[in-house]
Amino acid sequence: MARMIPPVIDPATASPGEREIFRRLKDDPLSSDWIVLHSLAISHHQRQISGEVDFLIIVPLRGVLGLEVKACSQLRRDGGLWYYGDEAADPRGPFKQAAEGMHAARRRVVDKDASLKRVLFWSAVCFPYVPFKVDSDEWHPWQVIDAMTFRSRPLAESVFRVFDEARNFLTTRESARWFRPDSGEPGASQCEAIAQALRPDFEFFESAKARAGRRDDELKRYTAEQFLALDAMEVNPRVTFFGPAGTGKTLLAMESARRASASGERTLLLCYNRLLGSWLKNQMAGVPGPLTVGTLHGYLLERARLTPPAEAGADFWQRQLPDATLAALLNVGGEGEFDELIVDEAQDILRAQYLDVLDLSVKGGLAAGCWRLFGDFERQALFETDLTLEKFLATRGEGAPAFSLRINCRNTPRIASMVYLLAGLQPAYARILRADNGIEPELRYYSTKEAEVGLLVNTLGEMFRRGYAGSDIVVLSTRAADPVAESLPAGAWQDRVRPIELASFGQVRYGTVHAFKGLEAPVIILTDVAAIQDVRSQALFYVAITRATERIVCLVDERVKAEVIGTLTSPHVGKTVPIANA
């Protein structure tokens, strides 16, 4: 079987003859070591601005044959003009057309590699549907493959005959002393060089800078559509916005804070995650008006004027620190320092002690003050809390309205489908605003720690070859202890992959899923996946894959394959999953 380049015929090829010749060249056992270029465009044609060779057949030990195909059912030449059925007159004729295309191809090859100048290049014409028995000094009879020959023998035999006759002809010509019939040219490596010279393989990627600019513009544009949610609830002083990951909650929280601060309201914008808090501070720097931005725990430490102990545990963060902050706020009057409170990641702050502090921080308290809470109360609560959203609204929120966000503006349709199929999101997103980029989420399985290290190294290398910058890539682990990213071999990768808190610009960041909650990156590589069906594992899986704006690659223990199959075949699969952009 010949190697066809391209491997399939263009669907737009109207000629049935070309289709049949493509198939016969590809399937003939005699052509097993051939390389066949189909529809080869010649940009440096000797007589035309551009030309095309129907088939350029590269045969080891023989040479290169330019084959022109005229799959017409009627053929005539009249007054020097050629007519192929109903086609317009052709003054050149097929033999000159074939020869010119062949010579243009040869010049292209020799210009790129002069060592190939002794390789035989020849041309022939195939009339698969009509007989052609015409003698002329313009062509050799053995340069013709007409209907009778085409139907009576394998096409490869006819090609061999053309080469044999051409080689015999050249040995008799004084002007062809360059030809060495016993040279064994072209060899296998020369055949590859000829193919690469005429139709080189290539792969280009959009630059990291251009990709980042386009992606950021797209995300901002689609998230801006979500601002309609803020407009719709503007008249309500207290609102909870809830929705799954990717629905724009963080940017909506930022826009709420910007609007409130710009109107002169003393505004407090808080989140739970430390990395997200740092990002919010950077993003909101320069916003006009009285705005305070930070993490919940940072705010508590500042108001309580405490420094956390070196080995601070859950009791300190969840009980001692809130109690100390309450005492400090009560000591200064407890009247509420802020006109408006905005909380992102609100699902993680629904603890009585935290809510008591926030109640004293906003004028009017939670019952009568102005606040906006943004949270994913379905699957993203990785930290233990006391209250559900329903209980909070009933007991602390005084029945404030809740606004559902179900339109995904972050993830591509294929990633959003993975969230539904493997991360258990129910119901699915109502709509996906991003266009399909054609990139499938991937699960790559490992059997040992060493195998996972190798997978991670290969995946990182692949992402860099695809044009991503180091800062585009984040490696997340389901565990804090002994993540695979800390086992990378000494050398290039160990120097280029750094903890999130320590990474410089351009370096690949790594950390836990918990630490990266609320943030996003073009490429997420999720590692150390040892389970996906229990509640905690599924929540981690959900949070991790929804961080990716372009690509998600999951490195999964082979022992989880059965769980993956079980999840994919679970009853929720088969329901409508929206994958088209709006």
Descriptive account of the structure:
With 582 residues, the chain is α/β, with parallel strands linked by helices. The chain is built from 19 helices and 22 strands. The protein folds into three domains: 3-198, no CATH class; 227-404, P-loop containing nucleotide triphosphate hydrolases (Rossmann fold, 3-Layer(aba) Sandwich), CATH 3.40.50; 413-568, Rossmann fold (3-Layer(aba) Sandwich). The longest helix has 19 residues, at 94-112.
Uncertain residue ranges:
43-50, 573-582
Strand share of the residues? 15-25%
* Average pLDDT for all residues: 86
Q: End-to-end distance, in Å?
A: 45 Å
Biggest sheet layout = 6 strands, mixed
Write down the domain tally. 3
Rg value:
35 Å
Shape: elongated
Helix content: 25-40%
Strand line-up of the largest beta sheet: 1-2-3-4-7-8
Q: How many extended strands? A: 22
| Class inferred from helices and paired strands | alpha/beta
Number of DSSP helical runs: 19
Quick recap:
The chain has about 575 residues and is α/β, with parallel strands linked by helices. Helix content is about 35%, strand content about 20%. The chain is elongated, with a radius of gyration of 35 Å.
List the helices and strands and how they pair.
Layout: E1 3-5, H1 16-27, E2 35-42, E3 51-59, E4 63-69, E5 75-78, E6 81-84, H2 94-112, E7 121-126, E8 144-145, H3 147-152, H4 155-171, H5 188-198, H6 208-225, H7 227-232, E9 238-242, H8 249-262, E10 267-271, H9 274-284, E11 291-295, H10 296-304, H11 314-331, E12 340-344, H12 352-361, H13 365-368, E13 370-375, H14 389-395, E14 402-404, E15 407-408, H15 413-422, E16 431-432, E17 442-446, H16 449-465, E18 473-477, H17 492-496, E19 497-499, E20 508-512, E21 521-529, H18 535-545, E22 548-557, H19 561-568
Parallel strand pairs: 1-2, 4-7, 7-8, 9-13, 9-14, 10-11, 10-12, 12-13, 15-16, 17-22, 18-20, 18-21, 19-20, 21-22
Antiparallel strand pairs: 2-3, 3-4, 5-6
Helix pairs in contact: 2-5, 10-11, 11-12, 15-18
